[in-house]
Specification:
It is a single chain. The protein is of the alpha+beta class. It has 3 domains: 117 residues; 50 residues, SH3 type barrels; 121 residues, no CATH class. Helix content is 55%, strand content 15%. It has 13 helices and 9 strands. The strands form 2 sheets. It has a 5-stranded antiparallel sheet. The longest helix has 32 residues.
Amino acid sequence: MKRIGKKWLIHGYWLVVAMLLIALLAVIAWRSFNNYSISPWLSLLTLTMFVGLVWGVCGDLTNIFSLRKQEGGITWCQILILCSIGIWIAGVVWIFQIHKSSSSTIVFGVIGGLMTVVFQDKIKGVVTFIHLRAHHLLNIGDWVRVPKYNVDGEVRRVTLTTVTIYNWDTTTSNIPISTLHADHFVNVQYMAEGKTYGWRIDKTFLVDTESVHTLSKEEAEMLKSEEFNKQHNILEYLPEDEIKEGALNARLYRLYLHHYLMNQPDVSQMPRLLVQWLDQQKEGIQLHLYVFIITNNLDDFDWHQSLLVEYVMQSIGWFGLRLYQLPMSFDEMIEEANV
């Protein structure tokens, strides 16, 4: 009942504004017909009421179109609001004959410059709105992420100046639309709909350079032994002729991990699957994994990503490699005990 009462109250408000506007227009028309001078302030009031009526109606229609996900209606409503602002500015210039007075033109120019500085965020918002809507980068119902503002949820409303997002933790964020152009944001909608190769895993592991070495005869025989392969299946993903004395353990592990990932049903080989060594750092050499997981479910992705990280931590030691870790007091205690 409260919602219904509020709805009728809003409609009644705009009805009163419309009736007052019609009455003012009738007065202006009557005075013009009888050659009476019309006060510029009365004309300004009428123009302002007209612009306010457009804003109010377009604002209500924007809410309706947002609920119905009618993108075209939202865009046209915001364009009408923008046009009404231009009409109001042009009306002020014409009503007060600013263009005929040099002093008034200077004053109007100064005021316009100040308004540009004050409302520069609003102007940026208009530019961003036009850019996003023209290129279909943001629609009602899209899943978006804005890391700077810790926003992660569904777009519910888009206007010339703000974007309303319903976060997955049931909170609501109302952010300036200009931030979507100035800062980084991610639209995850296509991925959520399955129109993708999968969710991307982009991980880098630091490997201790001191652990990189060529295999000894004993190490090569161990990797090829039947008992070792019953536990770890090394030869299932790495050709036996690659495992030999003098082979670099870092190269063997890269080949092994690449073939292992290629044979996983949840890993996509499109658009690319990379297992590579990156630049040497002072802490160690970087092992880079660039993998796409075939899923459009966030929980599944996080699960597979965790499994992959755990598998790297488990399997890297099979080849005599170890991940880099800063020395800790515990390590120093072990060294002292060994001495």
